[in-house]
Structures are given as C-alpha cells and as structure tokens.
Amino acid sequence: MVRDITPEAEADRIAGLAAEFGFRAAKIRVGEAMGRDVDAAPHRTERIIPRMREVLGPDFLLSADANGGYTAAQAIRVGRILEQHGYFHFEEPCPFPQLDETAAVADALDIPVSGGEQDTSLPQFHRMVSRRAVDIVQPDVGYIGGISRARKVAVLAEAAGIPCTPHCANASLLQVFTLHLALAMPACIHPQEWSIERTPWTEGVFGPMPEVVGGEVAAPHEPGWGIELEEGFVAQAERRISRGSQQMD
C-alpha cells in the first residue's frame, strides 16, 4: 500500500504475495492523499488500475484507496474506471470531513464506496450510516477510541444492513484488536485488511504474530487477546501512573 512504486512493480509484488500466502484480495492506492485531484505520478492511476487486473486475473478482489484525494467530480471519473475493470470497492474518494461529497460519489457509482477510517465521532458515524454516505463503513479501533466504540459502529452498520470492514493500517497490536473485532461482529463479512508492509517500530513488541495461511488468519485460541508482550519490550518500556493531576515515574 504505497504510492512510490510503479504500476508494474506493484502488480508483480501483489501477485507474488498472493502466490506465497494465498491472498484472494488486495487494495492499491490511487491519486494522492488529500491531493485535490493530483496524481502521485503522471497518469499513475489510469495505468495501475488496468495493470493490476491484467496481472491478478478476473477473480481476484481488487480495491482502491484514494485517501481523500479527489473532488466529487474527479472521484466519479476514477470510479468509472474502477467499475470498468471490476474492482471490489473504492475507499475514501473525497476528504473525510466532506461527508456530502462522499455521499454524492456513492450515489453516482455502482462500485461500493467505503470510508470512516479517520472519523472519531459516533454521531458522525450515525450520520454516515443513516445518510448512506458510504456502502461499507470502516472504523479504526485507534481513531474511534477503542474496541467498545468500534463495536458500536459495527452494530450501527449491522442494523442498517451495511458491511463493516475495520480499518487497520499496520502490523501493530491494532491488528490483533481488529482481528478480534472482525471475528465477533456479524457486519464484518468482507475480506479484512491485513498489512503486508514491514513496520520496524511494531517489531519486538508482542508475540506470537498471527500468520496468514491460505489467505486466512486463524482465530486465536490463547486467553485474552491471544498474544503476550515481549519481555524485552516490557523491560525497556517507560512506565507512568497517572493519579489525578500528579504524575509519577
């Protein structure tokens, strides 16, 4: 999920990972994050969309994330290209605060539009779901404020008949929390996000790391979250306890 890669290299990279781990779905980045209709490289979006489909084949579920990069008019134009090449869903086509713009895109397109990763307010999610501003809702456990609040969004989605695909950006503990959320909530029916990028700051923190086998991650069987913090990480961590207005080291 990077933009500083050519369409050809990205297609080959995803195809290799699909062959190795059995992935049956993947997401690419189009446009530029909050880019106001500017592409990450000249004509990259128009090149990567068909290239991915050509390399991955007709049955592989492909989605595209614009990270709020388009006006509604341009998002609709890009969405038509995604529809032409059989993409699964179109994520965050417009800047996330512009809910009406996103709704206009969702109303115009046949491809499902998704969003919600950066939203922190339960009332905003209620407006999003009630207005049908998105076809797939994507709360982030970190942004929304924890598992309990993310679960409320998933319940809202279930009641409205809208799928929920929690946003999960990296292989941190967030991935573990999101795995449990997706396993527990009936609205989480689609393939869920699972990071393929190496993030050094998340390494050496906990174990065992859930593994992808045949395109699936098994439900944890161990107590609690199914993981333990690494002893070395705990030993080196700074510990603080807050008591009222005073803080003790």
From TrEMBL:
<dbReference type="InterPro" id="IPR013342">
    <property type="entry name" value="Mandelate_racemase_C"/>
</dbReference>
<dbReference type="InterPro" id="IPR036849">
    <property type="entry name" value="Enolase-like_C_sf"/>
</dbReference>
<protein>
    <recommendedName>
        <fullName>Mandelate racemase/muconate lactonizing enzyme C-terminal domain-containing protein</fullName>
    </recommendedName>
</protein>
<keyword id="KW-0460">Magnesium</keyword>
<dbReference type="InterPro" id="IPR029065">
    <property type="entry name" value="Enolase_C-like"/>
</dbReference>
<keyword id="KW-0479">Metal-binding</keyword>
<dbReference type="InterPro" id="IPR046945">
    <property type="entry name" value="RHMD-like"/>
</dbReference>
<feature type="domain" description="Mandelate racemase/muconate lactonizing enzyme C-terminal">
    <location>
        <begin position="7"/>
        <end position="112"/>
    </location>
</feature>
<dbReference type="Pfam" id="PF13378">
    <property type="entry name" value="MR_MLE_C"/>
</dbReference>
